[in-house]
Amino acid sequence: MSKKKKNDREEIELPYPWQRIQGALWLLGLAVIAWQDWWWPGILVLAAISGLTQAALQLYFSRQEEAKTAVNEQTRLQQERSAWLPSVCPNCGGPLSVATVNWTGPDTADCPYCKANLKKPA
Ligand SMILES: [Zn+2]
To answer: CA-to-CA distance for 44 and 46, rounded, in angstroms?
Structure first.
């Protein structure tokens, strides 16, 4: 199992409705600028607003993406642990579960009763 950490964060594509909203914002901004006859520096203001909203949305969606990945990782780890964790402690016979043992690492845990070290079988 590789534990490569995802460092390279790729540009997040905004969901389609948001792209539409961005486009609509641009059109609205252009309309206001044309109506007010405020091309300069109005066009710069519009570009800045558009950039800011896009950055904010991308930040928001990348956060969501990260949270989802973290939850998936947690679930996967739980399943993997429950697959090899014995139901009773081989040392003291106490009942064990993924939730009650003290996890000391991804594949190691301590029995909550006798502190015996439990390890994922190789
Ligand atoms: Zn024990």
So the answer is: 5
Name the residue ranges covered by the structural domains of the chain.
15-83, 85-122
CB 31 within 8 A of CB 23: no
pTM of the model: 0.58
Looking at the DSSP assignment, which residues form a beta bridge with residue 118?
Answer: 109
Question: 24 pLDDT band (50/70/90 cuts)?
Answer: very high
Are 97 and 79 spatial neighbours (Cβ–Cβ below 8 Å)? Answer: no
Our CA angle for 77, 109, 90, nearest 5°, is: 115
CA of residue 73 to ligand 1 center, whole Å: 27
For ligand 1, the distance from its centroid to the CA atom of residue 114, given in whole angstroms, is 4
In 30-116, the DSSP E strands lie at 102-103, 108-110
